[in-house]
Design goal:
Layout: H1 33-36, H2 38-48, E1 53-54, H3 55-62, H4 66-78, E2 82-89, E3 92-99, H5 101-122
Antiparallel strand pairs: 1-3, 2-3
Helix pairs in contact: 2-4
Length: about 120
């Protein structure tokens, strides 16, 4: 096979990076990593449209395991986004979750950020 003496073509110079509304800047907060994880976003979203959900309701709704739900719900609880109450329904233990005011504000900020990214990507 013969070698070509022509140099490979260079890609055209890239345009400078553009800032995205809602993106990282001194005035705009970074994407909320607590909510951004898929299952945590699902938990917060489910609680945003339901005043409370039991552990079993969330587990069935999100089609996840006990351990996975427990770990992610605890992370949201530690961030102050979700409140957990434990009690009994007769003799059966019952854990219920609700979205806190702080969690609702965090979800609204997250959604605003994502909408800004979508608008920017669509031009």
């Amino acid at each position: 096979m013969a070698k070509s003496n022509t140099a490979p073509k260079r890609a055209p110079a890239a345009e400078p990076l553009k800032a995205v509304a809602g993106g990282k800047s001194a005035l705009t907060p970074e994407l909320d990593r607590v909510i951004h994880e898929r299952l945590r976003l699902a938990i917060v979203s489910a609680l945003a449209v339901n005043s409370t959900l039991s552990f079993n309701d969330l587990k069935a709704l999100l089609d996840t395991s006990d351990g996975n739900l427990s770990v992610h719900a605890r992370k949201l609880e530690e961030a102050g986004y979700v409140a957990c109450s434990k009690g009994f329904d007769g003799r059966i233990p019952r854990t219920e979750y609700r979205l806190t005011a702080q969690g609702r504000k965090a979800l609204e900020r997250y959604l605003d950020h994502m909408e800004a990214l979508i608008r920017a990507a669509r031009g």
